[in-house]
Amino acid sequence: MPNPNARPHRELVVPDDVSGERLDRWLASLDEPDLTRSQWKKVLDAGDVTCKGEPVPARYSVKSGDVLMVTLPVTEPIDIIPEDVPHRVVYSDDDLIVVDKPAGVVTHPAIGNRTGTLVHGLLHRFGALAESGDPTRPGLVHRLDKETTGLLVVARSARALRPLQRAMAAREITRIYRALVWGHISDDEGEIDLPIGRSRRDPTRMAVRSDGRPSVTRYVLHERFRFCDLLNVSLLTGRTHQIRVHCAHLNHAVVGDPDYGGRESQLRGVFGPDRPLARDILKLLTRQALHAAELRFHHPFSGEALAFESPLPSDFAAVLAQLMASGR
């Protein structure tokens, strides 16, 4: 019988692009809303981060593929009671699920979002997901922001979780997004290689920082409109808000993005006659125009090449229809 007083554990697999970084710095850079930098320090000081069963110090240089077990501090428990939360399953077998997440749905429960998450919906539909060491994140291999739509893969079986996590860390899972950005990108394709870390002004947001974690985003121009561009964007790293931060830093914020300068402030840069259309677009789109449209990877056991594509959600599609009707 499980011990109700047992502290939760989380397994972390060190990705290739942070190899050599100090453990404390890497942990503090993770997207852990319930663990501050000082709380991570307490966890490390208590010997609650281990590698191969041995506690590792804060100064430890992490290595690609290291499997770290973290014993988390006791917090108020979050009971996950399955709920019928909207989502679309595009593929499932005994080992994994590919789900199309709608806007407005948080991926997993946390303080402030205890109910109504995608995890709640998947548990309602499938009964169980792979145990990940964190009861609030069963089966999760990666996540999408609350208002970002589209595809993500979830481990259904325990045996599938680790291979999928390793494939993600090794960049063997291809994720391609559609992003509508303000203005016109100077090059039809390119790579944004700028480190990202927590914003010093607002810890709930991210920012390009010289001491941030390596972050690489590739883009290809898909279509050009009168005052904005539609891009195909792929991630070589998986930082929190990566696409949104990189685009905003280049002064091409994602259209509609309320956190990274993608709303009314952009109207000043739109040619006068086009401003009514730009305002109409923001009325149609109350969130960022960012959609995880394509997902490709090999099945961890059969080796089958799996490829999925998600159509644009209705609000994003309506914006593109208006832009196309207005002419280029």
Please supply descriptive tags for the structure shown above.
Structural Genomics Hypothetical 15.5 Kd Protein In mrcA-pckA Intergenic Region, Chain A, Pseudouridine synthase, 15 strands, 26% strand, 21% helix, 3 domains, four-stranded antiparallel beta sheet, alpha+beta, 328 residues, nine-stranded mixed beta sheet
Report on this model:
- It is a single chain.
- The chain is of the alpha+beta class and 328 residues long.
- It folds into 3 domains: 9-71, Structural Genomics Hypothetical 15.5 Kd Protein In mrcA-pckA Intergenic Region, Chain A; 88-170, 2-Layer Sandwich (Pseudouridine synthase), CATH 3.30.2350; 176-292 and 317-326, Pseudouridine synthase, CATH 3.30.2350.
- It is 21% helix and 26% strand.
- The chain contains 7 helices and 15 strands.
- The strands form 3 sheets. Strands 5, 6, 7, 8, 9, 12, 13, 14 and 15 form a 9-stranded mixed beta sheet that branches. A 4-stranded antiparallel beta sheet has the order 1-4-2-3.
- The longest helix is centred in the C-terminal third of the chain and has 13 residues, at 314-326.
- The chain is globular.
- The model has no long low-confidence stretch (mean pLDDT 90).
